[in-house]
Amino acid sequence: MSDQPDNNPFEVEERSLRSLFTRAFGKSRPGSPNLSNLSIYAFGLSGVWTGIGAGILPFKVIEALELGGIAVLGYALDKNGALGLISLLGLIVAAAAQLGAGALSDRDDRPGKRLLYLLAGGIGLSVMTILFGFTSSFVTLILAIVAMQLFGNSAQGPANALIIDHVPVEERGAAAGVLNLWRLLGAGSITVIVLQFMARYDKEDSPEWLWYSIAMMTTAVMVSVLWTVITNRPKDGWFIPTLRKKTVKAVESQQYVSEATPASGTKSGISRSYLAFLVALAFAIAAMSSMQIYALFFLQDVVGLDNPADGADWLVVAIVVAAALTVLPAGRLADRWGRTSLFIIAGSASVVSSLLLLFVSSIGEVLAIGFVIGISVGLFMTLTWAVANDLVSRSGAAKELGYISVATLIGAAGARFAGVGIDELNDVSENLGYKMILVAVAISFAFSSLILAKISKDSRFAGPIQTSEPVIAPSVSD
Q1: Cα(425)–Cα(304) distance, rounded to whole angstroms?
Q2: Interval 160-190: pLDDT, tens
Q3: Residues contacting 217, CB < 8 A, separation 6+
Q4: I need a surface site. Which of 28, 40, 306, 341 has the fewest CB within 10 A?
Q5: In angstroms, how far is CA 98 from the centroid of its own chain?
């Protein structure tokens, strides 16, 4: 048998036709990192936030109210108001923590510079999640949530830049798809299990179900964070991060030289394109948050379900499954075809599905439309993260990606304040508030997708990008 090398003229074509599974869980090409190893931390982090927010925090708020009334600036809060206040404070801390920790991690030039932030933040989040289980009063509840957001987003901020550190520009769409797949898997699976556990929970008779939920979430955080840290550790061992500024001549050994990002010595800053991206993202977040926040009441008041919680569970499953099935193909198509046309498809599907909800009368119709919404959400999640990685600078990647948390805060806050308008309009005419919020959601999706498509079209990354080789092979342990 000959030992001659196989000079297959179709080698490049065969590589491009590899299965999405291989691209997600194996090396996408020689010298490239394992995309799941870079992203699996998101499974635990997203699982904690959704598990706590959707499954446990509402119970804790009700228990705090049982100890006495809650008033802010003389205004008495009910359970929804108290829950919204805690969520809003948490988002503010999250935005600040991501920006601060991300900026600190950007100041270091050495390989693995993000990993100790991820490890310390993950450990801190696990500890605070356990302490969260002991909270009872409204004040301790706020302190626990704020501390969880502080530690969790001190890990998230630096981790945001792992794709830019390790993945060449022509594969960042695929990397964004894998990252969002792990986010969806964590958020969906852990939340479903927590909801099942908490359905059996009683503070006096069955408190153990709370601790089963917390044990599962902390285990998920530690396993997923440790996996990312260990598989991406520098070959030359650990280090203590430095807070010294980079020198212009420093070379970041794990980053790829390409047209995608400026040289490491280039001064970072927010470009007009990135600012427009953040505005568009805020509108998209507001639209998606509005559909999530008011889904339960919509199913109760408009569709007329006697048990809207069951309908909401099925709707979440439909959206999460559709989004999970979409993110990997979306990333692959974004790398091959560019982002622009996919944004148009995502925006069109979102607008149409939002407006179709104006005419629904049964849960079956809602679930069918919800599946289409899930496809749109999957497209938006992957495409926006890919474009964000296109637009930020290498020298300030984590800090600049941290501004996404600010856009998320603004969009989510806007969606929550919209609830006041819904109630007022419903008093004017039956279900008028729900109709107007759906129209507003459609407009927001249209506005967002048009801006994002324009940014992608004007960007040098709008179309397929030729393969480039890294200057120095990434020090990633696979």
Answers
A1: 19
A2: 889 888 888 878 888 888 998 999 999 888 9
A3: 44, 47, 48, 51, 52, 129, 190, 194
A4: 306
A5: 13
Which tokens go with 242? Answer: 């430095």
Q: How far apart are CA 404 and CA 160, in angstroms?
A: 10
∠ CA(421), CA(427), CA(428), 5° rounding? 95
**362, 321, 322: which is closest to 346 by C-alpha?**
322
Element (H, E) at 148: helix 138-159
- What value, to the nearest 5°, has the Cα angle with vertex 283 and ends 345 and 435? 85
DSSP assignments along 121-142, one per residue: HHHHHHHHHHHHTT--SHHHHH
Other C-beta atoms lying within 10 Å of the C-beta of residue 247? 10
Handedness of CA 427, 429, 430, 434 (dihedral sign): negative
Residue type, 132: F
Same fold, 34-240 and 270-461: yes
DSSP 246: P
- List, for residues 419-460, the tens digit of each pLDDT value: 778 878 888 888 898 899 999 999 999 999 999 998 887 664
Residue 344 token pair: 């148009």
In degrees, to the nearest 5, what angle opens at C-alpha 79 toward C-alphas 412 and 360? 60
- Please give the CATH number for the structural domain made up of 34-240: 1.20.1250.20
Q: What is the DSSP letter of 224?
A: H
Q: For residue 343, give both structure tokens.
A: 């944004």
| Cα–Cα distance, 361 to 343 (Å, whole number) | 30
3-class DSSP state of 71: strand
Burial 267-283 (b: 16+ CB within 10 A, else e): ebebeebbebbbebbbb
Distance CA 79, CA 101 (A): 33
Name the nearest CA neighbour of 113 among 176, 159, 45. Answer: 159
Specify which residues 27 forms β-bridges with: 34
The answer to whether the beta carbons of residues 128 and 146 sit under 8 Å apart is: no
In whole angstroms, give the CA distance from residue 182 to residue 38. 10
Q: Given the structure tokens 């104006």, which residue do they identify?
A: 358
CATH class (in words) of the domain with range 270-461: mainly alpha
The reported pLDDT for the residue numbered 467 is: 35
What integer best gives the mean pLDDT of the chain?
A: 80
In the block, which residue shows the tokens 């801190």? 124
- Taking Cα atoms as reference points, which of 183, 328, 175 lies closest to residue 260? 175
Helices (H) and strands (E) in the chain, counts: 18, 2
- Amino acid letter for position 285: I
Residue 272, helix vs strand vs coil: helix
Residue 10 pLDDT grade (very low, low, confident, very high; cuts 50, 70, 90)? very low
Q: Hey, where are the domains in the chain?
A: 34-240, 270-461
